[in-house]
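TA notes, week 10

Several of you asked for a full example with nothing omitted. So below is the full record: structure tokens for the whole chain, then the designed sequence directly under it. When grading your own attempts, check the secondary structure regions first.
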């Protein structure tokens, strides 16, 4: 049972990291094309995941 829980935890962490990476790429892409509304949406999604890059990215708009 422990092995199963450890595997599920590892999968969850890996999925969250890959999702955060995708959000980061999208936020940067929209930022470079000057679509700031879309960029902010993805920075906020990073913040919701607790990713420091989201807080840093939103700092540009303050």
């Amino acid at each position: 049972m422990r092995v199963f829980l450890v595997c599920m935890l590892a999968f969850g962490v890996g999925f969250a990291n890959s999702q955060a990476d995708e959000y980061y790429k999208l936020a940067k892409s929209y930022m470079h094309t000057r679509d700031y509304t879309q960029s902010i949406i993805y920075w906020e999604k990073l913040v919701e995941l607790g990713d420091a890059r989201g807080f840093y990215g939103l700092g540009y708009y303050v």
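Residues 19-62 form one domain. Use that as a sanity check on your answer.
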